[in-house]
Amino acid sequence: MNKESIISSDNEDVNKLEINSSIFDKFNFNFYQDVLCLMLEYHCVRTISPEKMNDFLYSAIYSKNQLLVEQILKSPFFDIKSVPVDDILFKSIRIFNIRPVIECFIKELELHGIRNFLQRKSYEKILKEASKIYLLDHKNRNIKTNSIYCKDNLKLFTEILLYHNIPYFKEKSQIDLTFIKEEEKASYLSLIINSLIKVGDFVTLQKVMEDPSIKSKINIDIADENNELPLITAFDANSIEIFQYLLEHGANPNIILNNNETRFNDLLLYTTIVEQKFQMMACFLVDYCKVFFNEEEEEKKENKSSRQYARSIILSNYKTYSPDLIKAIYLRKSHQVELLLELPENKKVKGLWEGPIFPEKLNVPWNPSYRKLIGKFTALIYSYLIGDHDIFEILIECSDINEKDGFGNCLLFYAIMNEDLTLITRLMELGADFENISKIKSANPSDDYMAIEIALYSGNKNVFLKLIEIPAINLNRTNHLNNSILEMVMESPLFSEHDKIEMVENLLKRGCRRDLHNSSYSPAMFLAVNMNSLSIVKLLIRYGANVNFGDGYQSPLEIAIYRKSLPMVQLLLDHGANINSKVHNERYSLLWYAIKQGDITIVRYLMKQAGVHLSIGDDITYEDLVLISQYDDMVTSKEFQNILQYNMYRVTGHLLQQIIHHNNINVLKLLLNNHFAIDKKDSKGNTLLANAVTKSDLSMVNFLIKQGADLHSLNQRGQSIYDLAIIHCNTYHGRFIYNKIRRLIKPL
């Protein structure tokens, strides 16, 4: 009985049906799932084996057929105790929108009291994989696979473990830690915490971490099986609430990051600076002042000796702040700070500055119990970062605004990273140094970064445009890598082309040189052509950039041809680009280079230009012809045929030998179709036919003879084709060549 007949039958008829179980061996019910559903609903089959029912369940779950799943679970032939639950859950991790089907399945398991799959030895594999495919990209906040279903599936599997009944209101639901409260493996508990962080389930996270039966077993400074730390996971998820919660519950502030090619032995605090997460940085500073002094109550802070504050995270490169002043800053007592600054020992005194210690890369082992923050801030920078406006206003009037902290950064650096235009303007008025403000991206203590560089690294166009208006900034200065500001703008991946046009134009208007290194080469022009930006190239040309570079440089026209950009080629030629220049480090012409690139439209445009030379300037190689033969429209074009025929004298004997060696009849046809002399000889006087006979290449010999190759030619040694056949054609295929030539030539 087929699908249509079953569906069209009324209920009474269907109930009378009795189908032999052998039908399951004849039909693929993975495809006819609706038919199977009807058969199970109306009990049409007398008996079905448990193994077959499990197969049906697998298929129904993976195809997300909830109706069929429900019928299978209700079937008298289904034995739920025989189902490999952990295998089903593991294979469903990557299935989109699987929640309704899995919830149905889990509820049935709950009804039968089946929970053994929740034990760590079974469930860790499931949760590890679900968490793994949801790895957060720390830079772009993207998910490696589909973010929606990954997050929902991970959330589903954490709920199964911790609630069993999939709660709708977690605040009112009772968490069940039966299968983890006896767990001693800290990495598994970290895996659960990481999973909750990734799905943003702060309510459940608090319940887990604060439960008396499990609290003492959690070590949030231990990585899970995916090598992820909870604090780093919260950092990458940009969850400030969870990040602060973990810090308050003992997470180590001195974590070293090694989980990305851009994070190698980097301090987490350093990474908050680089990635501009200033709210998290403030969490660090405020919370870990409490941790460092090991006091939380204000009364105890007040009674603590001022001397103990001298070991705080506040430092000065010029002199040591008095303990009383540090204590007042830490306690946020602005009035007391103001009074203390009037004392002689706290007056601004400059001394010999030996430079900051910059701990970008640590070579010391990481000690989880080491709670002191590595790297310190000046009082001025500290008050700015924690947002204490009153103390900041007091300190900025009497502090050295160019003083660098333990990370090698001055206040201007943080203002730029925080995109604080108001403070940048104020620092400009106060005479801040805009040339050497940071060492944030360099491990070399002698490398300082300019304010403009930091603005570019932060990706803030408005800050950049504000900075280049400052007369004191030298727009023609290069950085420690010898890159000009114009180059850095062009190479930055953080700005759109429209932004770059605005930024480049403002730089050029304010006197930034377009050819900073030398007058015969413009890196900015090179980069603009390479990124195929017609607008920026036009802008550079308008400000006098040269479209022809000197010897030793790749020309803009060559780059445009390589990019196969006809509009760019047209623009450059319209402004005087040399069409007859050579390819960089080669002897052949740009016209031949365009042919090799396979863009017939560019070749046709170049051929129409006045003064274009047809000579390609170098020998034609076998590799050239193999490459060109791949482009049918090029090979059949009149332009290519004219150029090839004009340069036929550049076909060398080595090329002919290569054709025979590779048995490439297609390349040979390409030459012959363009009036190549079939009997042209190489340096030894051998023709193509002579070389083919020498190689015993039967197919090539037949082709050449058919094309009219001379059978009577002699090489420099006086050997005829027949002589060569006698010498070389002593193989299986060679005898056919010898016999054929013998029939065609009578020996002298």
At a glance:
This protein has 748 residues and is an all-alpha fold.
Fold blueprint:
Blueprint: H1 3-8, H2 11-16, H3 33-41, H4 50-62, H5 66-74, H6 85-91, H7 99-111, H8 120-132, H9 147-162, H10 186-198, H11 202-210, H12 230-236, H13 240-248, E1 256-257, E2 266-267, H14 268-274, H15 278-293, H16 298-303, H17 323-330, H18 334-340, H19 379-385, H20 389-396, H21 411-417, H22 421-429, H23 451-458, H24 461-467, H25 485-491, H26 497-509, H27 523-530, H28 534-542, H29 556-562, H30 566-574, H31 590-597, H32 600-607, H33 622-628, H34 632-635, H35 638-646, H36 653-661, H37 665-672, H38 688-694, H39 698-706, H40 721-728, H41 734-744
Helix pairs in contact: 3-5, 4-5, 5-7, 8-9, 8-10, 9-10, 12-13, 13-15, 17-18, 18-20, 19-20, 21-23, 23-24, 25-27, 26-28, 27-28, 27-29, 29-30, 29-31, 38-39, 38-40, 40-41
Task: Provide key terms for this protein.
mainly alpha; single chain; flat; two-stranded antiparallel sheet; 2 strands; about 750 residues; disordered N terminus
What does this structure look like?
The protein contains 41 helices and two strands. It has a two-stranded antiparallel ribbon. It has 748 residues and is mostly helical. Among the domains are: 1-83, no CATH class; 285-408, no CATH class; 416-473, no CATH class; 651-748, Serine Threonine Protein Phosphatase 5, Tetratricopeptide repeat (Alpha Horseshoe). Helices cover 48% and strands 1% of the residues. The N and C termini lie far apart (86 Å). α3 runs parallel beside α5 and α21 runs parallel beside α23 (451-458).
